[in-house]
Amino acid sequence: MATAFPERFLWGGAVAANQLEGAYLEDGKRLNVTDVMVGIGNTPSLAWNEQAERWEVAPSTSGVQLSHEGIDFYHRFEEDLELMAGMGFKAFRTSISWARIFPSGDEDEPNEAGLAFYDRLFDRMIALGMEPVITLSHYETPLDLLLTYGGWLDRRLIGFWEHYVRTCLERYRDKVRYWMTFNEINVGRMIPFAAGGMLDIHPTDTSNPNASITQQQLYQGWHHQFVANALAVKLCREICPDAMMGLMLSQSAIATYPETCNPDDVLGAQAIQRKHSFYSDVMLKGRYPGYIRREWAEQGVELHIEPGDMELIARYTNDYLGFSYYRSAVYSSRATNTSTTKLATSGTGSGVSNPYLSGTSPEPWCWPIDPKGLRYVCNYLQDRYDVPLFIVENGIGLDEGPDADGRIHDPFRVEYTRDHLLQVEEAIKDGCDIMGYLYWGPIDVVSAGTGEMRKRYGFVYVDRHNDGTGTLERRKKDSYDWYKGVIESNGETLHV
Predict the structure, then answer these.
(1) pLDDT of 80-128, one tens digit each?
(2) Selected catalytic residue, list 259, 393, 400, 425
(3) Around Cβ 396, how many Cβ atoms within 10 Å?
(4) Catalytic site residue 21?
(5) Where do the domains of the chain lie?
(6) Is 184 noted as a catalytic residue in this protein?
(7) What CATH number does the domain located at 10-495 have?
(8) Are 125 and 48 in contact (CB under 8 A)?
């Protein structure tokens, strides 16, 4: 059967530095925000020093911080990239850990050891036939920038970011053709510390580092990131004009369905979609939309926008939209509170179930499985923005391990991935311009959401466990050969 996937479709997988590299304080690197967290939804391990009147790093009370060692990719990347190449990957997405390049974030000179590591990493990808797809900031803002400046609440971060981006683009201009700026800044609504890179350094509540962040601060911080995003696009076009600078957002919430045709349900679902479209509306349309201006007026938000900001944002919009999709949601106006109203984030929320879906992922996570939601999201985004789309995260986390013969059987993952890829093919037939599909977590990594190894996404098993034990041995799961066949056939085997 003929396939609808284009000949140059970028098949591959995606990871993030903070979830697999380890070596969290090696070769000059300092802490980034996720180094003081056990899962991005957890409270960061910071304590308020009343005498110094500042936040300081505190010992974690939340358990083993597995991300500090990750799966030791920093020392084992050659072996791991060989495994990815064995599946025929055309592209491999990872991130540059900002604190490896500028350990505190505000230095004048970069850390050469950090730059050299990514030279070796990208060189190996290219030698194995994989395009590096690189995120510049994937929940990896240097912690010192938050403790000293408040992170993106302070406009000075735009200058530090510009220096960092220029350094990366100049260094890797001949190696990287696909860049993305910030990973899922829309998730900053729920987790401003990790996803938003923001910390109130003059808090009214010192019990929780996130407790004092206001709507005013969030939108001001995002404005600074929008300016920074536009500057990254500008620098890319000047330094490496043959490359593309994309943005990356969690877009699961776009697949928020109204529970009924009650206009309140429809408008409620639309409101959630708008909360997550706001970021791409600015970064792809180059302006603040009317619906957000109404929200600011009603909430008393008044942004400080410097002369030239909006002109820069309007002129330098991103070249493509990278996004993650994991699950859909249902909005119900009859629900009485947010615990029973599905709010549709990429990995949290509970509430109204969708009776038309076939099931959920296995316990304990129980995410609704909705492959057609991915097709819906692709069409929504194509219609709204008319830019190339890049699916840079989609996958399923399962609690699994070797059987008595040492094999890892994962038929659920095969079924999940096949069903979603069939809907990607349908979206391409619908007219969506989709650059590629990067499965999230082709090798087991530390879960961003829960901070554990038990939630395994990979086609490759890594022998590491929640208590920190394990040999770190890599082992192929059954899904490894299945995904290899999909790539080799450019999607034809999906129909077998």
Answers:
(1) 999 999 999 999 999 999 999 999 999 999 999 999 999 999 999 999 9
(2) 393
(3) 26
(4) no
(5) 10-495
(6) yes
(7) 3.20.20.80
(8) no
